[in-house]
Amino acid sequence: MASLFVIQGADQGKRFELKSKPMAMGRDQSNPIRLHDTEVSRRHAEVRPVDDSYRIIDLGSANGTFVNGQPIDQSPLRSGDRLQLGQTVMLFNEGVGAERDLTARVDVLSRTSPDDRSAILKSIPAGEGSRVLQAPDITGGWLKDRLLNLSVMYRTTQAISHVMEIDALLPQILELVFESISADRGAILLKDDNGLLVPKAVRWRGPAEPDERMTISRTIVDHVLEQGQGVITSDASGDKRFGPAQSIVDYGIREAICVPVQGRHATLGVLYADIRAASGFMPTTFTREGVRSRFSQDHLMLMAAIGHQAGLAIENTLFYNDKIQAERLAAVGQTIATLSHHIKNILQGIRGGSYLIDMGLNEKDDAIVRRGWTIVEKNQGKIYNMVMDMLSFSKDREPALEPNDLNETITDVVELMQSRAKELGVELQWEPGANLDQVLIDADGIHRAVLNILTNAIDASEGVTTPRVVVKTVCDPDSSTARITISDNGIGIDEEDLATIFQVFSSSKGSRGTGLGLPVSQKIIREHGGKIVVTSKVGKGSTFVIDLPMKRGESGGSSEGPVMTG
To answer: What sequence ranges are listed for the domain FHA (predicted)?
Structure first.
């Protein structure tokens, strides 16, 4: 599936999957692709499916839309294209399916094939690429000009710094190749787990013919990998090393460059680019042997430099992905261990209640049965709430925003918690505000978010003198914001703990808390485009303030995270 991957800006790291319908981009929360960038217009641009690809259209934005650094009104998109809206930079990727269709067209001829007649015109060692980057002043005129403006190498470094997915990185590297040496076709072949070369990314200048294939010489590829050299290859008709056979001109190739993709510790594969026989836009040069050549030593050195940087980028990306996978597995292990601990405690409670019920039935004592059933019912509620929090936290969802009476939703929560407050001796006050009967919210989501915070407030007030929790709502017409305030005079939160209360499994309740309630509340409020402000003093109590936009497209403030003050 095609996607946009954010490599720079407030939403860095996010991936937006493109669908088979137009998708608008902008600050407005109604956009399928919502960007938290103050320099992006509310409705900035739109990505539309066209045939088998996509096109981006600027929607009259204030700061414009750019594709590969060029301002556009509308433009077709190809894998590796960089889109910039405000301070947000995204990479377009056509998706695995489209890339596989192209990589399937790459043929690497075997050594024994009579069709492999490539000749090496020039070669340089792999280390030359890093030397070029370290000392560009000693290179030739054309290459010196290329390196002194730093655009190609700067963008390569940017790819290393920001792109952490192979599928997005490789098309970007080929884009750099096409910008720097004006090739007709390019490919990146990487070693798989068995050491075999596999085409991973392919690029044509302009649309590829339906049946067009890219043929690469196995002899040349093996030479590059075994000798660690970057080479320029050409028609081999006059090269006796390769014996009588069909010329690569039959494949429509005039010349090609192939360089190693060299990481810090190993050669990861090869970077290949060629010029078709019909191309005539590059200046012709001559080798010492008098052979006409469109690729020069400078082109080869620049390709080696890009191959060196590409190797570092790919190595970093693979390392990053391995690290993410390891962290993901560690997180899964932690999640299982933590949830198992909480479930064990709940089951122990149910088991204890069941024991009392059994004893009461045997002794025909209704009071004991009632006590046991109360314990079972309480623990059933705990496991239900934990499962609901797990479901809410584990999946991204768009809130079903509809005009709702906010006070009615909060009233349901307060009434639900009155019995628990009474059980703990906590006074629960409810002060509804006016003009909140048409607030765009997902009522079920807000119900759960407020329920989690209110439950914590009641628990935190237990045991203090005259425990009290106050729930208020108010409408701020100036900012079109609905505010929910939940205050308690409980034990308060340490300043050190205040910074971690929204982290998963962070709980000050010991075995009573799962550490899921507040993260779920934060997630739901973010999905509404709102924010949570928390203030707390140890021994004085805490106040949670939730601001929600009352209208679609408004913002209740920064939704990047909670604001916490001690």
So the answer is: 23-72
All structural domains of the chain: 3-93 (2.60.200.20), 99-278+295-321 (3.30.450.40), 324-394 (1.10.287), 402-549 (3.30.565.10)
For the stretch 21-46, pLDDT in tens is 999 999 988 899 999 888 999 999 99
Q: What is the DSSP letter of 486?
A: E
3-state secondary structure of 404: strand
Nearest Cα residue to 251 out of 291, 300, 286, 217: 217
Closest CA to 80 of 94, 70, 66: 94
Distance CA 251, CA 113 (A): 14
Query: In Å, how far from its chain's centre is CA 441?
Result: 27
- Give the sign of the dihedral formed by CA 18, CA 21, CA 26, CA 32: negative
pLDDT in tens, 9-27: 888 778 888 988 999 999 9
Q: Are strands 531-537 and 563-565 parallel, antiparallel or unpaired?
A: parallel
User: Strand 118-125 relative to strand 185-191: parallel, antiparallel, unpaired?
Assistant: unpaired
Structure tokens at 39: 């320099």
Q: 377: Cβ–Cβ under 8 A, 6 or more apart, which residues? A: 353
Secondary structure of 134-178 in the HEC alphabet?
HCHHHCCHHHHHHHHCCHHHHHHHHHHHHCCCHHHHHHHHHHHHH
Question: What proportion of the chain, given as a percentage, has pLDDT over 90?
Answer: 18
Element (H or E) spanning 548, and its range? strand 541-549
- Conformational region of residue 541, where left means phi above 0, alpha means psi within -120 to 50, and beta covers everything else: left
Span 156-183, pLDDT tens digits = 555 555 556 677 778 878 877 887 777 8
Contact at 8 Å (CB) between 431 and 470?
yes
DSSP class of residue 241 equals G
Residue 150 structure tokens: 């730093």
Q: In what order do the strands lie in the sheet with 88-93?
A: 15-17, 3-8, 88-93, 82-85, 65-67, 70-72
Query: Structure pTM?
Result: 0.47
Distance CA 420, CA 397 (A): 30
Amino acid at 61: S
Helix (H, G, I), strand (E, B) or coil at 510: helix
Name the residue type at position 183.
A
Residue 411 CB contacts under 8 Å (≥ 6 apart), including other chains? 430, 432
How would you classify the pairing of strands 563-565 and 439-441? unpaired
Q: 162 CB contacts (<8 Å, ≥6 apart)?
A: 7, 8, 12, 89
At residue 200, the pLDDT reads 87
In whole angstroms, give the CA distance from residue 566 to residue 502: 15
β partners of residue 50: 53
